[in-house]
Amino acid sequence: MDPGPVVLTLGSWAQQHMQEMMTAKSKDNFDKAFDAMVAPQATVTVNGQHMTREQYRKMMWNDEANEATGSITFRATVEVPKAPKKIIQTGEVGMFFEANLRRKPLMFDSNIRSSLNMRRGYTAPPGDKLADGRRATSVNQVMTDHTTSIILDK
Q1: Phi-psi map region of 100: left, alpha, beta (phi>0 left; psi -120 to 50 alpha)
Q2: Origin, by domain of life (predicted)?
């Protein structure tokens, strides 16, 4: 008998989805990761500025669009499940992470530091009982992006 699906905790879910989004190598893969993480009706705030979901998508893709290589390190994650005893969790999750990206064509290193708080709710697609319908319904992110060095591509 197969072991069945793996159900992630709030923190693991947030880390996995952010990792997939931040390391996507194509726009199609990025869009799939973004759509799996951020609900269509999500409210988004970045550095105190409210923005639409599509503006957030564009901002996050711009961080990825010219990436040659990249890594993400999660420094801390805090989760507060709405109903801790339930197997499939919704609730609040916050995480602090650093992403190091080497970007083309000039090959400069960029260091992104971010604190991200999300409210994860259940937004299942109508009629799709197999899909993981949990998405971030609220995103509040504080981030900095610093160029650390410029490397001439040989």
Answers
A1: beta
A2: Eukaryota
Domains of the chain with bracketed CATH: 10-83+94-123+134-150 (3.10.450.50)
In tens digits, what is the pLDDT along the chain, a chain of 154 residues?
566 566 678 888 889 989 888 888 888 999 999 998 999 999 999 999 999 999 999 988 876 555 567 788 999 999 988 877 776 778 899 999 998 877 665 566 778 899 999 988 876 655 555 456 778 999 999 999 887 666 555 5
Measured distance between the N- and C-terminal CA atoms of the chain, rounded to whole angstroms = 53
CA distances (Å), origin 144, targets 44, 51, 110 = 17, 17, 10
For residue 48 the two structure tokens come to 């105190």
CA 57 to chain centre: 10
Radius of gyration of the chain from its Cα atoms, rounded to whole angstroms:
16
